[in-house]
Amino acid sequence: MTRGHSPTYRVPRKPDVVAKALGQRVRELRTAKAWSQERLADEAGMHRTYMWGIEQGTRNPSLRHLTRLADALGVSLESLFERL
Amino acid sequence: MTRGHSPTYRVPRKPDVVAKALGQRVRELRTAKAWSQERLADEAGMHRTYMWGIEQGTRNPSLRHLTRLADALGVSLESLFERL
To answer: Which has the least CB within 10 A, A1, B28, B57, B68?
Structure first.
């Protein structure tokens, strides 16, 4: 990609590291409610294997999925991404 | 969908409302840097029309896209989703 601007210095976060950290956060919020993965998947209207993949950090959920997940967990998106 | 549990009371956020609010937040962070949409698209490695759609709230960006966007803007994901 041709860049027309000087690059800004930053340390980009690797997407898979972020996905894994989000998965841990989801698990933390889920277990705080004493919910099984199946229960959370059900509450968020997602398939259980998809939810499993989110907690493993192997999925790349969209904003819509993330919104449904935060809603199901009863937290804001800001809280879902705490320290991320 | 058959639900095996009693539904938890909550007020779900509509995904398109969240997408629009996120778009406004991106615009706010971008203009604070005095960057054009083109500049931000370039920094985040996205196409300019895709970035335009994110700011309009008509796109459904994935976690990877959101991570690249936060990195380009120099903020955490938590900050990107401030008050969301």
So the answer is: A1
Q: Give the one of B1, B45, B63 whose C-beta lies nearest to A22's C-beta.
A: B63
- Those of residues 11-70 in B touching chain A at CB distance below 8 A are 12-13, 15, 18-19, 22, 39, 42-43, 45, 60-64, 66-68, 70
- pTM for the structure as a whole: 0.85
Taking 50 as the pLDDT cut, the residues of chain B under it are 1-3, 7
Percentage above 70 pLDDT, chain A = 86
Structure tokens at A76: 């804001």
CB contact under 8 A, A64 and B68: no
**Fold classified for B15-79:** 434 Repressor (Amino-terminal Domain) (1.10.260)
Domain A15-80, CATH number (from 2.130.10.10, 1.10.260.40, 3.40.50.970, 3.40.50.2020): 1.10.260.40
